Amino acid sequence: MSANWFRRRFLPGGPLPAPRPPRPRASPVPYRRPRFLRGSGSSPGTADASCRPDARPVRSPVRGRALPWNAGYAEIINAEKSEFNEDQAACGKLCIRRFEFGVEEDREWLTLCPEEFLTGHYWALFDGHGGPAAAILAANTLHSCLRRQLEAVVEGMVATQPPMHLSGHCIRPSDPQFVEEKGIRAEDLVVGALESAFQECDEVIGRELEASGQVGGCTALVAVTLQGKLYVANAGDSRAILVRRDEVRPLSSEFTPETERQRIQQLAFLYPELLAGEFTRLEFPRRLKGDDLGQKVLFRDHHMSGWSYKCVEQSDLKYPLIHGQGRQVTVLDMDQLEPQEEDVVVMATDGLWDVLSSEQVARLVRSFLPGNREDPHRFSELAQMLIHSTQGKDNSPTQEGQVSYDDVSVFVIPLHNQGQGRSSH
Predict the structure, then answer these.
(1) What DSSP line would sit under 236-274, residue for residue?
(2) CB within 8 A of 358, min separation 6: which ones?
């Protein structure tokens, strides 16, 4: 059907009107940075933090604003594709209420004295792809999902052994034995709550994005402390490590189950519209950057169990469909760990790990903390220093001058004198 036919049929003698520009899609949530960054500015000395002319400042919480456990935080916007930071962060205190079954088997929330509350702390990083919307939604939603899921099992968490029936009624005398044979412990209820919270949050994000006509997604890396244990839950390619004087321990991993890889890629091959123009179905050993354009790199597609090489095109720089989509939860018993003064957990989005290995980060941590023991803000200073090490400075502590072109967000969580014992208040 030609434009001339359209003009003759509907607009005789008149010019064809200019097409209307597409209406902007309303974001389900407004763009903003984490609340704990309000009033913050760039860190000192960041004007020359990178050899790149478009260097952006590193931001940390304003001095005097303490995060849970005196944790440190820093972030930088590096993604040249957008003025927005697609990373998001959240942290705070978790207060888990208890409920009991009423006479009519209905749940009544009870107002109890503080000693009856179960409390913990929460730190989370979200790395958006296809825009910041999903990460913002996750940062504002996941902690509420987690609290609800924990409140649903809190009676089992505080019991000596999780009961078969949450009401406390023993239907069969052998019920406790079945629970014991399965090896079900209180920490398994927390792990299940985290997994369910991730699923619930994922569904909320999907509904909100669909309602607003947007696409995208995000990774999630969460650390939670409850009852003397540290739980690290991960879905995506962010990473958390435990750094001690003589040990580096991974607390998360990035993976997509091999059994699912080819099925997912084949679906993307058959129905490319599912990718919404935001993803590539091809798998690469790592996420490609602008520096890879024109280079021949390893890749594989849906029909391949082995690998081959291809010349990198612009479309290959999209977010990879097959990359860090697994979920896992790692549990760290703080009593057994017996943390020392300079033991920390480093959580960061992939912008840090694209440039620094876990061992390099551990060396930077060990070189920085001993000389700054009197600084109450040393953990945020350490987070800033880790980010500066990704900005290509000639005097970078790694002496490698590598540059991360992605957004970078870092939490540094000190473990010494934190969370030991089973006190929950």
Answers:
(1) SS-EEEEEETTEEEE-------HHHHHHHHHHHHH-GGG
(2) 239, 241, 248, 250
Could you tell me the two tokens for 411?
A: 């939490």
Residue 274's identity, in one-letter code, is L
Structural contact between residues 194 and 153, judged by C-beta atoms closer than 8 angstroms: no
Structure-token pair, residue 27: 């974001």
The residue written with tokens 């690998």 in the block is 307
Q: CA 349, CA 219: separation in Å to the nearest integer? A: 9
210 burial via Cβ count (<10 Å: 0-12, 13-18, 19+): exposed
Contacts of residue 122, Cβ cutoff 8 Å, sequence gap at least 6? 68, 90, 91, 92, 93, 94, 143, 146, 222, 223, 224
Put residue 194 in one of left, alpha, beta given phi > 0 → left and psi -120 to 50 → alpha: alpha
CA–CA distance, 170 with 176 (Å, rounded to integer): 8
In tens digits, the chain (425 residues) has pLDDT values of: 444 433 444 444 444 445 444 444 556 678 888 989 987 665 544 333 334 445 678 999 998 888 999 999 999 987 555 678 899 999 999 988 875 544 333 333 333 334 446 889 999 999 998 788 999 999 999 999 999 888 888 888 888 777 766 656 565 576 676 667 667 788 888 888 898 899 899 999 999 988 888 878 899 999 999 999 999 999 888 999 999 999 999 998 765 445 466 666 677 777 776 666 667 778 777 777 787 788 877 777 766 656 677 788 988 887 666 654 456 789 999 989 999 999 999 999 999 998 999 999 999 999 999 999 889 999 999 999 999 999 876 555 555 567 888 899 999 999 987 754 444 44
Assign 3-state DSSP to the chain and report helix, strand, coil percentages, each to 5. Answer: 30, 25, 45
The pTM of this model reads 0.75
C-alpha to C-alpha distances, 421 to 66, 79, 138, 201, nearest whole angstrom: 23, 42, 31, 31
381 vs 387: CA distance, rounded Å: 10
